[in-house]
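Sample entry was shown:

___
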Amino acid sequence: MTDSKTSLKPLQPTLYELAEDGHTLNFFFAQCGACGGLSFPANAPGCMHCGSPLSEAQRVTRPGGGELLEFVTLHVSLVPGMAAPSIAGDIRIAPGIVEEGVMAVGDETELRHCMTVRAIAEMKSEEGVYACRFVPVKEGAAQ
């Protein structure tokens, strides 16, 4: 499915969509009817918190981003098409949910543990898709 804000498709359409600003991403979560907790991705079979089935769960869209917990420079490509070196980080995207993401920065000096990061679209026009990357949120900048 092509996003209405671009002719490109999300690389992972079950995980995110382009936000209204055409630059940042929104993430898709499932909200458990039993405990109210959020699970990611939205199509997860069971709640990450209580284990209840999510077949009837409400889908929730939230701005993509979170808190950068750890990061490391990868000097080899872990997946086809991934540039090396790349910086990968563990990001808390919601309470109790930590996901790995690729950081869109020049080097580790631009990052700090526990800093706020935002998910942005990395346009890959030649492939017809946009991918999820994370960038630091500048202190004092609008969220």
